[in-house]
Structure formats: structure tokens, C-alpha cells
Amino acid sequence: MPHTRQSLDIVTPFFNEAESAVAFAAMLADLEVEIAARFNCSVRTILVDDGSRDNGASRFAKSLTGNWEIIRLSRNFGKEVAVLAGLDRADADLVLIMDADLQHSKDVSLELIAALLAEPELDVVYAVNSREGSHSRGRLSKLFYKLINSSQRFDIPANAGDFRVMRRPVAKALTQLRDKRRFNKGLYAWAGFRDKAIPYSPAERVGGVSKWNGLNLLAFSLEAFTSFSVVPLRIVSVAGLLAAFAGAAYGLKVLIEVLFYGVAVPGYPSLAVGVMLFGGLNLAMLGLIGEYVWVTLSESKDRPVYIVRDVVESRSRDTQQ
Ligand code: UDP
Ligand code: MG
């Protein structure tokens, strides 16, 4: 372990987590003590209020001890963007990202840090949710990773989220990726670096509800694909080609029947089926291409990724510097 005192920033995004504030602050106080004792690190917590509509920010401000700041965004930008806002403020040797709902425990956090500091060659240690995988949503998510990883030079590991600790160069690299529609798992993988996974099983939320449901999971997957994969477009092209060949073959068959066997072609049912089938396929594929065009459009606008409303800081900045 190096003699110089290292610094560690904890980045935590929160959205409507007033119910978790007190418990989170208590956990954090313990975590800070243990980090200081075990790793000789000074700790600062950077909370990002992702446009909460409850009084979460003031509850956090009241409960937190030690060295902290709360960055309040001007509205809800989504967890992925809130994490970026936190990383933009972070400047420590190590950066730990964890949730505010206590699903990411103190013990696993310590395990991540210990694993990273144990190997100087490692840049990132991330936690992998070992509970996912068997139920139907788990199978769907397996399919999702298989598809999205089918055409690129880097692999997005399954069930690895934002719960991770990284060295400063990694955090810096991530802040250089200014995608507005962010898919963090993809960005981590894109950035590269040497990483290691540690399995964990997330705890229950202390309060409030998860912000994920079927619909926004679907939107999230679409976002992931449109920013990290060209596979859907390839499927569209191949499907189009196959349909064209099938059409040509069918046309040839009809032509032969008429010319050589004098069969009167019963046109109407096959026409109706063909028109409906390919009309529908056309619309679906146009929609898909539209998704990619929309991504291009939103990324090409020169807007910032997020806007900060204000920053609230603890007064005790003595442990830092
Ligand atoms: N979160 C956020 N902005 C959002 C949604 C969630 O900052 O728009 C925060 C949330 O407060 C929590 C973390 O991101 O600290 C993870 O969210 P959640 O618990 O809803 O996700 P899950 O644990 O179910 O994956
Ligand atoms: Mg959660």
C-alpha cells in the first residue's frame, strides 16, 4: 500500500429517495470510517439529485456527515446522466459509484475497493448481480447481451451495472464520452481498461420503489441497441433481401404456370397477404431506421448532457487536500 494518503470519491445518483436518506447517510458514515481505516483513504461523497420531486436533497443534507456535496440537476435526466454529472465533479484517485437505495451494500463496496487496491494492474472492479439469470426476464436479458455483443470488438458483460470502483484515468475517460442518450454498461465496455468482476447479490431497497418497469426497460434496450449495435439494421437488410428473393421466386413460379400449364392464377388472396405482410414489414423497418435517425439527430444537437441547478456542500472540507 502506498504511503501517500489516497483519496476516494463516492458518486451516488438519487431520484425521489427521501425514504432512503437517513439509512444511506448512516451506512455512508460507517463506510467512510472503514475506508479510512483499512485503505488510508480520505473520502468525499458526491450525491447527484437527479431532479427529485420530494424533499430528498434536504433530507440527505441533514443526515450526511463528513465531506459531501449534492449537485442538484435542473430536472430528471435519468440515472445514466446523473452518474456522469457526478463523475464530472470527481477528481480523486479512486471513484466508487453506488446507488442511494442501499441495494449496494457497504460490505460489497469494501470488497470492490480491496480487490482494486490489491492489484496495481487493475483499473476497474465491478460488481455482478449473481441473482439474475433463471427467470424469464433473466433469459430475455441473456438474449439481449448475446445480440448486442454479436458485432463488436468489446464485450458488454451481463448483469454488471454502475456499482463499481475505478482509478482516476478510467473516471476521466468516462467523462470524455459525452453521449446524451447514455447506456453506461456499453460506455464502460467501450472505454476498455483492465477490469475484474466480483459477484454480489443486491439487498432489498430500504424504501421507495425501483424506477424500472417493463416499458422503460424496453426503451432502455432500444437505446442500447441504437447507440451500440448495428445488428438490427443488418437484420433488416437481410430480411429485405430474403423477401425480395422469395417474391422473385414466387413470380417465376406463377409465370411458368401461366405460360406452360395455362393455370388461371387466383390472384386476390395471395395479393392481400403479400401487401399486408410487406406493408407491415416496411413500416416496422422504417420505424427502426427512424430510431437510428433520431439518435443521430439528438446527438448532433450541441446541447450539454445535463444542466446543474445548484451545488450544496458540507462545510467541513478539511479532510480533503
Ligand atoms: N435514479 C436516478 N435517476 C433516475 C432513476 C433512478 O438517479 O431517473 C437513481 C436511484 O435513486 C438509485 C439508482 O439510480 O439511487 C438506481 O435506481 P433504481 O433503484 O430505481 O434501479 P434498480 O436498483 O431497480 O436497478
Ligand atoms: Mg435500486
UniProtKB/TrEMBL annotation:
Location of this chain's protein in the cell: Membrane
Gene Ontology molecular function: glycosyltransferase activity
Keyword Hydrolase tagged: no
Highest rank taxon of the organism: Bacteria
Keyword field: Glycosyltransferase, Membrane, Transferase, Transmembrane, Transmembrane helix
Domain Glycosyltransferase 2-like: 10-173
Protein name per Swiss-Prot or TrEMBL: Glycosyltransferase family 2 protein
Phylogenetic placement of the source organism: Bacteria, Pseudomonadati, Pseudomonadota, Alphaproteobacteria, Hyphomicrobiales
